[in-house]
Each structure stands twice: as C-alpha cells, then as structure tokens.
Amino acid sequence: MYRNQNTSVFEKPSLVIIGNGMATGRLLDEILERTPGQYQITVIGKEPYGSYNRIMLSSVLAGETTIDGIIQKTPQWYKDNQIEFISGTNVSHIDSENKKLILQNSQNHESLEDQKIISYDELVLAVGSRSAKIPAKNQNVKGLFNFRDIKDTEQIQSFANQASALKGEDKKALVIGGGLLGLEAAYGLAISGVKVTLIHRNKWLLNRQLDQVSGTMLQNIMAAKNINFILGHEVAQFTSNTNKEGENILSGAELTNGETITAEMAVIATGITPNKELAVSANIITERAIVVNDFMQTSNRYISALGECCQHKNSTFGLVDPIWSQCKSLAERLCLGRLSAFKNAPVPTKLKVSGVQLFSAGVVESSDTTQTFVITDQKSSIYRKIIIKNDIIVGVVLFGDVSSGMVYFEMMQNKQKVLHAMPELLIGHEFMAIEAENKDQRSEAA
Amino acid sequence: MNSNIIFTDRQDATVGLASSIHKTTCPYCGVGCGVSTTVIDNKIVSVTGDKNHPSNFGRLCVKGSSLHETVADTGRILTPKVFGKQASWEEATSTVAEHFKQTITEHGPDSVAFYVSGQILTEDYYVVNKLMKGFIGSANVDTNSRLCMASASVAHKRAFGEDAVPGCYEDLEQAEVIFIVGSNPAYAHPIVYQRIVKAKEDNPQLKVVVIDPRATATSKNADLHIKLKPGSDAFYFNGLLAYLAENNAIDTDYIEQHCLGYSEALDTVKSQMPTLENVAKACDIKLKTLLESYQLFAQHKKVVSMFSMGINQSSSGVDKGNAIINCHLASGKIGYVGAGPFSITGQPNAMGGREVGGLANQLAGHMHFENPNEIDLVQRFWNAPKMAQKQGLKAVDMFDAVNSGKIKAIWIIATNPVVSMPNANLVKKALQKCPMVVVSESYESAETVNYADVVLPATTWGEKEGMVTSSERTISLQKSLVSAPGMAKNDWEIVTLVAQKMGFSDAFTYKHAHDIFKEHAALSGFENISADENIHRSDTEHSVHRAFDISGLANLSLDEYLNFTPTPWPINAENPKGTKRLFTQGGFATKTGKANFVPVVAKYPQVVPSTKQVVMNTGRIRDQWHTMTRTGRVPKLMTHLSEPFIQINAKDAKRLNVADKALLQLDNLGSTYIGRAQITDEQRVGEIFVPIHWNDSFSKSAKVSALISSITDALSGQPEFKQCPVNISAFNAKWAGYLVSTMPVKLTTDYWTMATIEQGVKYVIADKQGLPYCADNSETFLQTHFPEISDWLVLKDDKSHILRIAGFVDNVLTCFFAGGTDLSVKYSTQFIEKQIGQKHNPKTRFKLLSALDSDGSLDVGEIICSCFQVGEKTIKHAVASGDCSSVEALGKQLKCGTNCGSCIPELKAFINS
Fold first, then answer.
1. Are A377 and B859 a contacting pair at CB < 8 A?
2. ipTM confidence
3. Residues 632-691 of B with CB under 8 A from A
4. What is the mean pLDDT of residues A341-345?
C-alpha cells in the first residue's frame, strides 16, 4: 500500500486516470469490484461525453444505433460512484517529480486562466491512440475526416446527411484503408446512401486477418452493397477546390497509379498511432508506445499505462481482449497490491463485417513447412481454413461460418495434435468424434 | 390351386385401380420358384413366394423378392435398330432374313449360327431350334447352357441313356445324408438350400457334407467340409467307389439287374489309385476326413449327391459327373425317395432348352444326331425340307468359327457372350469382324448390344409368356403380366417373323406361345415307345424311346395352358399328373434298359499354375445374377456386395503385401481384373475366388471371363471356368475415393465400379496417378463430367492428400466426390447417398463435406440383410448388447433374415463370433 505524501493520513490516496476510453471504463469496473472507496478517483477525459463503446461507432454511422445508445457510463454514473469526472479537458503536462498534473480545457487550450493543477498518488495513462497518418499530399482540406471518435462520426454523418439532401447526384466518399475500421466506415456510409470507393494498399481486404480467397469473398459481399474497391494502390494526393470563403474543399484524390477519383469527402482509416507524447514529456520511457512491465507499470513507479497507448514487450494493442486483461492486472496491483502478471496471450480475431462473421487466429498464409486444409463455397461465401505445422494448428481463417473457431483456437494454444482428425475437424469439431468412432470400428473390423 | 389368376375385389385406395394377383415363375436360378405377383395399372407392384408352388412353397430369395424392381422401362431397348439407326420391325426382320438367306446361299447353312440362352422360354427355344435344324439345315445352335449344364447333360446321357435328372427336391428333405459337391446353394440356389436347412432342423440326424475347395456360406452350416484340392473331385468319387467296394457297401443285386460295366469302372479306379491314401493325397485332404465322409455315404441308404458348376465347369466335367453317378449306381442309391445323384441347374430354363434340343450336339425332344432314325423321325414330324445331319458347333468353337470367318452371320438371343464366354475379349473381336451380328435383347446395359448390326428389342420376365423347366423336371409357366415396353416383342415372335420372311411361312404359323408348346409336346410323344418296348425293339424300327415325354400336354387348351399347374415330366397317358422320380424300377433309357457305369480316369485341371500364379475359382454371389443387366438395376441388391472382389488367403495376401480391402489385380490372356481383396481363411493357399458378375458396364476391369482360357471338356464342350491359373499383383493405387451422382458418367480413372443406388449411382474409384488437384479450381476434375454444374463446394489440402467436391444445381446436391491418398480410409457413403438429389441449406451445406450425419445414426455399416437393409453395425450392436443370442431373436428385433433368409449364414457367424 502506498502512502499519499501530499495528504494527511486520514485522507484517501488519490488515483488519477487520464483518458476516458474503453480501457478506463473497464478499469473502473475492475477497481469498484475489488475495493470501492479505497481511492479518491479522478478521471480526465478529452471528449465531453461519458464512457462509450467505440467499437459501435460504425453502427452509429450506419444509423443502426445512436450516440446515446453506445454511452456506457454517463456523468451521473461517475457521481454515483464518487468518482470525479473532468471531461473536455486535456492534460498538458505531467510533473512526475511532484506528482502533479497541469490540465487545460480542451476546447480552449490557448487560455492560461483555464489551467488547473491536480495532484495524484497513483497515475494511470489510458490516453489511447489516434488515426495513423498517410503519406498523401494536400491533407489540409475540408471534407477529410478521421474515424476515431464521436466527433469524427458526427462530422462524417452531417456531411453525409447534407449529401443526401442534395438532389440528383449521389454524394461520393473515399475511404482510405481496407482494415476493419475502413470497412466499417465504408459500410456505414454506404448504408446511409453515400457512394463509397474504398482504397486499400494491399491486394485484398483485411489482409492481416484474411487470405486472398476470403478477402475477395468479403470484397464481393461488400461490392453487392454498392461499395467500389480500388486495391493495391494508395492515395498520392488529395485534390481540392477553393470556395467563396477561400477554404480548401476536397474534390477527390489522385492515386499512385495516376488514376483520379472525384469525391466530396474522404475518411482516413488506415490504422492507429499510440498517443505517447504526454509520457515523453514526463520522461517516461517510450518506444513505439509507452513501455510497461508485466504489471502495467511504466518506468515511473507511480505511473501506470494501459490500452492502445501502451507497449508490453514488443506488442501494442488494438483489440479489446488483451486490454481487458491489462485492466485486471492493474486493478489487482492498485487495489490489492497483488502482482498478477499480464500475459499477452494470443487472441483470435472475431469480427462481424457487413453482416458477415469472420474468425482469424495465428498465421494467415501457408508456407513450405505447413499443410493447409481449405473449404471453399463460393456461392454461399463460406470459407474455412486450417494451417497445420508439425501436426499442430498454427493458423485459422474462418469466413462466413465461424463455428468451431474457439475449439480450433484452444487446440492451437494447447498444441494439440490434429492431423489425424483432418479434414473432419475443419468441417466442424463435432465430426471429429464421429469420425474417430468410425475409425475405431474400422480397426475393430480389421 | 387350379386357377392361377385370382382377381381380387380389393381396390387400391390411392390410385383407385383394381389390383390383380397372378402366379408366375421366377426367372433366376434353376430352382424354378413360384412367384405370386400383384399387378396394378400395368405395373408389378409386389412379389411374394407362391405358397402352392412345389419348388418353394411360399419362400423367395432376395433376388426373387426384388423382381418387381427390375421391371421398368428405364434402361430398356425400345425399338429395333439396323446398323445403328432406329428401324421398323418390318425393316429389321427383313434385313435379318435377307442377310441370313444370302449368307446361306453363298456360304452354306453352316455359315450362320444362333447363340441363345438358358433364360429364354421353352417356346422361344423350340422355334429357334426348329428353324436352324429343320429349315436352315445346320445344327449351329448353341446356348449359354453350354457354360452351365452341358457336362451334367452328357454324364446323364452316358449313364442313363438320356439327359434326365432322376430325383426331385423332396429327396433332399427325405435324405439321411446330402453331399453338396462343387456348389454353394446358400448363394446360388437359396430356396433349395433353405429346404435343406429346414430339413436339418426337422431332422437333426440329417448330415450334410460339403465338397468344395473353398469355405462358403453353405459349408459353414455343414456337418463336414471336405476342402479338397481344386478339380480333384473325380479322384474323390473314384475313391468313394473303391471304398464302397472294399467295405461291402455295393448293392450287387442292383448292379446285376440294372447296370452294365461295374467291374471295368472299378478296375480303372484301382489301377489309377491302388489305395485310399493315394486318394487322400490326390485330393490334398486328411485320410481320416476322407474316410469319415465315405463312411457317411456307405452307411446310409438315403443319400443324395447334389452337384453343380464346381463339377460341370471343368475340362473333365462329364467324367466327374459320371464318377458321382457311378457311386450311386454301385450302391443302388437311386430311384427311390431320398436318394440319387442330383444335378442342380444354374439357369431357369436350362433344362427346358435341353428338352427342345437347344444345344448343338442335340437334335430335338431329347433326340440326337447319332441315330439316323431320330433325324428321320424329327424330319417327318416337322415336315422339314432341310434337316441338319450332324452336330453343330458348341459355344467356344462357334465363336472361334465366327473369329475365323467360317460363320458370317450370328443371332444372339438373351445372353451376353462378350461378358460370359471364356476368353471374352476374343468373342468381342470375333463379333467386331462378323458381317452380321443380330442381338435380341431387353437391356441397354448388356454389353453385347454394342457389337450388334441389328438390335431387336425383346420382352423379358413379367412381359413374355411361356414354359420353363426346373432342376427337378417341373414344367411351370412364366406369365405375361404387363404389356411390353416400347416396340419390344417376344423372342419366339421375332424368330417366327424372320422364319416367315426366309420363306418358311407354312411351318411357322404360330400366333401364341401356346401353339408352340403344343407342337413341342406332340413331338415328345411322336413315335415314342416305352422303355420296355425299347429293349425289344428291332434296329430297323423307326420308333424311338424317350423318357422325355409330355405328350399328355399336346392337346392343352389355351385356358389350361394359361393356368398350368407346375408338373414334373414325363407327363403322358401313363403318368397324366407327371412323374416325381425316374428310373424307380431301373428302366433306363438305354437300348438295354440298363444304366452304364462309365470308367473314369480322374484328371486335374488342364493348366497347371506356375509358382507365382494363383488358381482362380469363379462363382456367383448372393444378390447378383449373371452379368447384372437385371439385378444391377436394383439398389437393394447392390448393398450386400457392391464391388468386384478377390477372396484370398492371408498367406498369399502377405506375400503380395496387400491389406484387406486393398485393390488387387489379376492378369491373364492380356486382360485384367481389378477387385478388392477379401482376406479370408475360406480360401486355400494359392487359390482365389472371384465373382462372375461384374463387367464393363459396371466396372473398369472386372470381366473375369476375359481371363479364362477357352479350355473345354472334350465331350461336353463346357469351359473350365473354375480352375484357371492367373497372375496376381497389388494394384498400387495413389489415391482412392468415391463419386455419388444423380446420373451415370463415364469415368477415366484406372479403377472404378458403379453401383445403382436409390438416388442415382455410386462409383468407387481408385487411380494410379496423383489426386486430381489444380490449385484454384479442383472442381475442373468433375466439371468435364458435369458440364451443367457451376456451383461447386470444395474441400482440399495444399499437399494433394484430400479432395472432396460437392456439386449443386439450385442447391440440390447433384454429385459428391471424396478422395484421398490415405488408402486405409474406408468410406461410408450411406449418409451422402441419402443427400443426393436433395435440396440443401446454402449456409450449412458445407457440412455435407464430412459425408457423415452429425449424430452418426444413419451409418448402419455394410448391409447384411438386403431385404430389410439391416447393416453390420446394427446387427453387431444387437448381438453385443446381449438382446439377441440367436438368429430368431435377431429376426424378431431387427427383421433381418426373416424374408428370403439368404443372410442367415452370415447372421449365424455374427452370433458365433
């Protein structure tokens, strides 16, 4: 247990969390589950909302749900749980020697009067990430968006809405990036009536999770929803016009292959960059992100980090499963003083894109030393693949039907020998047992 | 009982059509069972055994039980074809008549030939025989009975003076000991076999001795199995004759009164084999076992020796038959209830064919060419312009003559010689060369049709009408129950039309089979004197004695004909109700009235295997008939054994390094047979057994007859089908699998076998090349076979070990292929067969690729009971659970074995294991 140096023995130690994303939401739950009331907790969030489910933003964009529908912790909730919630506020500096923070209203960060200083006993950095930059020229134009937060979503939505209000011509949008975020943005826009062209650097979509066959299946399904694809190319530069007000307005893009496309809007969704700058300014060790040990502790013993802003060993994070484990490990230490090491266990990717389930774990591509079993049903857009090396599953790609995915994943984790169960296992793990019984009877008969 | 037609008052509830029940005779084996059929709306909807028929008393085997499933318009030849083009009957019969006439004019009567079948009816046979032997003037008429009964026929003639089976089925039930020799009646004559089984149940004292080189379903139920060296049967029966002589078991009074040549026959035996040790050695069996069996023969009065193809299909088949008959004559075990040698016929009307004289060495009505009186008698009866004067060419010689160009026109009726003849590929070549090949046939799948210049569509069982004679001389009617499909005509009708066009209208005026039968019956009685009169007949007298006398039927009315009660011949004034047993008081059909002992020098098969060869035995399996044109159409009959196989001893399998169920290859005469190894101690070392049924229509290389040399018995002309040395090797498949499809396709793999299933067809496949696999579109392998399919579901691996493909049309599973390089995988297709032709959910259909149902319940294992489709797994489970400890209990619980009973030997094996 740590003693708060800035407060008297009778006061609770203060725990300050910077960032109010999904990791913070989960961390608060973990803390309240263990030792509610142990800390005076303060949460500082840049956005003006409570804690919301960022994963659902594409549903909001698609009009399938609303902003209210994805808020998980309202300001009232913080109040009810005696947590001080400072929203719409940036932390401009950490004085780690004195364990103080300098805050700035995020809406008006030029004004010195709005500066506020608070102290902490324990500090958690959960500052997340931001959209990665692309090398294209002429990005300072109106109509170019990221797709990270509620504000981005609202801007895209309002732009799209203006578009659909226009008569005659469809509003055209570019989405840059064929990863999950890009596909979700494209899907959301297409559903709301925008004519979308998705530009992806790789030859097929979701190239980290899918192989070419399944990636192409996904493309075909999305193409049927009126989304255009340009694969294997990047945006060289955005094109723009100047309006009456003198603003630079996006007019389209020129690709690396010289092709030009017109569009009123573009969404960049090529990936994320961890927010490590605050930590750098506090002399905390960072690499690609804020480096933490097995217990989510940074190089400063009073400062922890977790979520998309942290780096554990060589990994950074974008999926929820490992982040939930980080929250647990950190809560154990902060609340109970237990050192419960975070293990960065591999996790399968389970996604639902454009209504299609997909599941991916381990390697995606075969090699000379592997044997790959594949089911392809082009008409039904079902694809299942298991990659085996030395009798053990090293990769799984399921598309359109993800049944048995977790069983394969466990087998992969447990290094279970599976070659004898192929190909029945690939069709469904339930067939493996039937087949085994048949084999028994065969050997009996022999 | 007197009326065979019972019009019931039952109305079919669904169709609203009257159903009627008709009695007829089964067209399969020589047992000649009575069949009761239900006909609705010109369709035979069900069959049951005729309870009143003397052959079967209500029982039917699995083949007979599914007769109604064979009668369908699909796969039938529906119109005449002349040189590949559809033709009218007028055109087709004119072409045949003109061509035959011209050939005869240019090259003489012996330049034409008929090759017919033990499956055509007596009336068909009679018309063919009359046309050739009396009007064309050649005896070049032979029949597939040559492959079946010819040796027994000659043996009978030599011993009794006439080709006549002395006893009847009842003798099997009344016997104290039954010797079953070279015969597996449990499979080949199931109803006779069941009568034996029942008799044994009723009389546990009844002993059954099986003499067969291989263990069979029959031998498993026997008291004693003499597993002798293949082809050593004459050594065995010669030894028995010597044993009888040495052990005071000779009926000297009987020999004195009724036989000739005993001492000579015995001397011949003794000079070849002085001791019984010699016999045991010659037969490769233990002396103790040999003596045990001899003792059973000697010590009982009522002994029947039943024999069939194991004796007949031999280069010394006639002698073997006589060696058996010698023993019965010597001990007087003949001519009374429960005794006698008993040749069991293979085909439904082999005996009827012999009665009309349908073999090249016979004339007509049990008369022969050797006696000019007999030729004269027949000529006068027929008022024939041009009588044949000498024997014609027997089957093997006949096709040799076709091959050498001596025969220039041949008419093949109801038989499939390119499949069934020995050295069958030579028959194929001969037919390809022959200027005029006419084929009268019912089924498209009969391979011989492919070699015909003129194809004539013939009626078959259930459509045609006429008499057949069973193994016990019982004449019985096959009835016309439904109308002929397409333009098909009865065989007698087709031959009559051609005979008329050849200018013989006066002698061929038949309007109905009944007209022909009456003439045949009249001929049998024409100048026929009794056996007694025969002894005292002077050599100049014209009359000829024939035991075959059915003159009592010469005035049969049409109504009596159509309602004919099965009756054994002779049927004449003396025996108007027929005759169960012949030669009861001696009275043999020889000039002396005495039976002849025939001295037999026992011989082994002609060709001796080299050290690397095995001796191939051939035979029938339980659920198939001959070349499968009929039974191959019935899915139920394909479930027991759906693939050509090779039964082989474990030692030989080990030598060849093949596992059970692996493919084996046999080679001889430049032909190959590929079948699945069944490793079994049923076979002796160095010997294999192969089924006769499969052929090019059903399998890539399974025509066993193509491997068999045309070595024949010098007396009977019957080929040596049972002991042919062949080369054997493992078929080194690279991958194996199967294809199930709604319709047949032409596969090009190194091995395939087709089986008819309810929903279409199933192919079992193996290949010596790698698994068909193209990285992106494996379905191209099937695409060529199924151009209409574009919706493919594929499972494969990138090392080409496994490939499964399902093809859909509108989500209906149309074909399913599964293959893999792991040859030990035994595929069960029961689940997927049921899915073929069904619509499937596009989101879950990929699960079909398992070829398994998710709970496994549909897989019942290999089908054992064909009638009720009860599988091995189900039976094993019932036995293992302790619920069923007897065949009866299994029948009660699962119904297996309760219909035809063919599977009872196998059920017993499950219980005993």
1. no
2. 0.82
3. 660
4. 91
